[in-house]
Amino acid sequence: MCLILMKIVIVMAYHIPKHLADLPIYHKAEEIFVLSRSIASYLHQDLCGLKPDGSEDNNIYFSGDIIQQSESLVPEILKAEQERHTDNKHKHIHALNRLTQTLYRNCRRLERSHSDGKDFIPILRRELKNFKRLQRSWMLSL
Fold this sequence. Notes:
By secondary structure, the chain is mainly α. Helix content is about 75%, strand content about 0%. The protein is built from seven helices and no strands. It is elongated, with a radius of gyration of 16 Å.
């Protein structure tokens, strides 16, 4: 049910042509978004409390970052696909590479957090590796 609602939100936010919605990289980006959102909400419960000294856990910000970065994957794919000029396509491809690297880096940071939810981070990292493979073959098709 949650996956269906997320897809509706993504489709409503962006006009997605039929041929783009069939791309494997597009589907993997959607999966990463749903997965990162689920993991972040799980982590949030453990990380939102204050430490005994009254300070907050800085890792809570990384959980928000993975949501924002994973949410930006689909728009960058769409922009690269719809762009006519090669230079502009490469700009969006480069932005997608940066997002993927930053997302992977934030996952590594979250693995060092003091939360039970960190056990789910390797799943997201594995999906990011699959996304990178799809990304390489997708870039050749542009």
